[in-house]
Write a structure and sequence with these properties.
It comes from Sunxiuqinia elliptica. The protein is mainly α. It is 87% helix and 0% strand. The chain is elongated and about 50 Å long.
Length: 126
């Protein structure tokens, strides 16, 4: 991938992960103000914003192992976001339509980042 393509990819992913975090925050703030709603709200906000923050950190990391580590955290947090979205649906805190869009996005982000990590790991071994 050429440098300009890599830069464009990174910027697109920064925006995409940030938009995902914002979408999760917006939906979380609509949860009922009770013990369960508050807990799921905090968990989803924490992990979804962590996806964006760790991806962003990977873009400025100084070494390949650090990039891989930050991307790995973002993958784990995207997967956890998907879990909390599913849980919120199970508890009827969000609609099926709302959950489908967020779940699809968290899954796609994780898949893209897994492929990026694999590519970096292969480069490191070459």
């Amino acid at each position: 991938m050429a440098t300009s393509e890599l830069t464009a990819f990174k910027e697109k992913m920064k925006l995409r992960t940030k938009r995902f975090a914002h979408d999760c925050v917006r939906i979380s703030l609509k949860f009922p103000e009770n013990m369960l709603g508050d807990h799921i709200c905090k968990q989803l906000i924490r992990c979804s914003t962590s996806v964006a923050a760790n991806y962003r950190a990977s873009c400025v990391a100084q070494t390949i192992p650090t990039v891989i580590a930050k991307i790995s955290i973002a993958i784990e947090e995207a997967d956890e976001s998907e879990f909390w979205i599913e849980f919120a649906l199970d508890e009827k805190l969000i609609s099926k339509a709302q959950s489908e869009d967020l779940k699809r996005e968290s899954h796609e982000i994780a898949s893209i980042l897994i492929k990026s990590r694999q590519t970096l790991q292969q480069k490191r071994l070459a």
